[in-house]
Design brief:
Elements: E1 2-6, H1 11-22, E2 26-31, E3 41-44, H2 50-57, E4 62-65, H3 71-76, H4 78-98, E5 103-109, H5 132-151, E6 155-160, E7 162-164, H6 175-185, E8 188-192, E9 198-199, E10 201-203, H7 204-216, E11 222-226, E12 232-233, H8 234-245, E13 250-254, H9 269-274, H10 283-294
Parallel strand pairs: 1-2, 1-4, 2-3, 4-5, 5-6, 6-11, 7-10, 8-13
Antiparallel strand pairs: 9-12
Helix pairs in contact: 1-7, 2-4, 4-5, 6-8, 8-10
Length: 297
């Protein structure tokens, strides 16, 4: 089996590559950005160029599709977001159809849910995304279903909840590396609202392990939540970070942002049925490992 990874240079891609490398999985890594992991076959490619995409897909059996124009940028550039995320994905799916790819593993996002009607949030929860990014991710989920129905192209969609861990830099704007950066700088952190907003944080090395296992399971044409089923509040994260960094955090409370979700945790019953006995990294341990990595960059 040979695996092709689109979006290989990103935070999740780097972790998946290291996991697959450690287990001697043959792979081709691809991205529009360069990749600096030793011993990895890397091909620079633009998703919007069908020839670039085909040159990778023709040599692999399974595709891991992580490439995406990000959520924050989608607010300012919705057309660009749709072009890269939707048209780029269709280039992958067309090539996969042409070359008889066994399975396409796609990284979707829990943000496609939009307004939370109930929590824990299962895979059947209504989806009304609030950003162009979310709209694109939901569109791709439907395209995968349609390509399966029309062309018999198999897929597996993972809906990511709140990822964190090594290779996620403060420049990403993600909560946990930003908490690390601010507490190290001046011991304070700005929180919108009361800090009791609940999120489901999943450690990226767990994601890499799940992808590795997915390659060895016959999981086809499913949408599966990737969260832990356990919630932590924003305030929890700041307080845990303070203990690890030996800092007494000062939390600056700012007015709540309109439309911010209060309680957002994954229902993982479907995940548990497929990946029986999987043990997630506890948040305290994941934070320690993440801060150790951040301390050395």
């Amino acid at each position: 089996m040979k695996v092709g990874i689109f979006g290989a240079s990103g935070f999740v891609g780097r972790n998946i590559i290291k996991k697959l490398q450690a287990n001697n999985i043959d792979l081709i890594a691809s991205d529009i950005q360069n990749l600096d992991i030793k011993g990895v076959e890397f091909v620079k490619a633009d998703l919007l160029n069908p020839l670039d995409v085909s040159n990778i897909v023709k040599d692999v059996d399974v595709i891991i599709h992580l490439a995406a124009h990000p959520l924050p940028a989608s607010i300012e550039h919705p057309k660009m977001n749709a072009k890269i995320n939707i048209e780029g994905t269709l280039n992958i799916l067309d090539a996969a159809k042409e070359y008889g790819i066994d399975n396409v593993i796609f990284s979707s996002a829990s943000s496609i849910v939009g307004k939370v009607d109930y929590s824990p949030v299962d895979e059947d929860h209504p989806c009304f995304p609030k950003t162009p990014y979310g709209v694109a991710k939901l569109s791709i989920e439907h395209y995968l279903r349609v390509y399966q129905e029309l062309y018999n192209l198999n897929y597996l969609t993972f809906r990511f909840f709140n990822l964190y861990g090594p290779e996620q830099h403060p420049a990403s704007g993600a909560l946990i590396p930003m908490v690390f950066k601010k507490l190290k700088e001046d011991g304070s952190f700005n929180v919108f609202g009361d800090g009791n907003q609940m999120r489901d944080f999943i450690y990226v090395e767990d994601i890499a392990e799940i992808y590795y296992r997915a390659l060895h399971h016959d999981i086809r044409n499913q949408v599966v939540n990737l969260g832990t089923g356990k919630g932590s509040t924003i305030k929890d994260i700041i307080e845990k970070a303070g203990k690890i960094l030996n800092v007494s955090p000062t939390i600056n409370y700012l007015p709540a942002r309109p439309g911010e979700i209060d309680n957002f945790v994954a229902d993982i019953k479907k995940f548990q049925k497929i990946f029986q006995g999987f043990s997630f990294t506890p948040i305290d341990e994941g934070l320690r490992k993440t801060f150790e990595w951040l301390s050395n960059i």
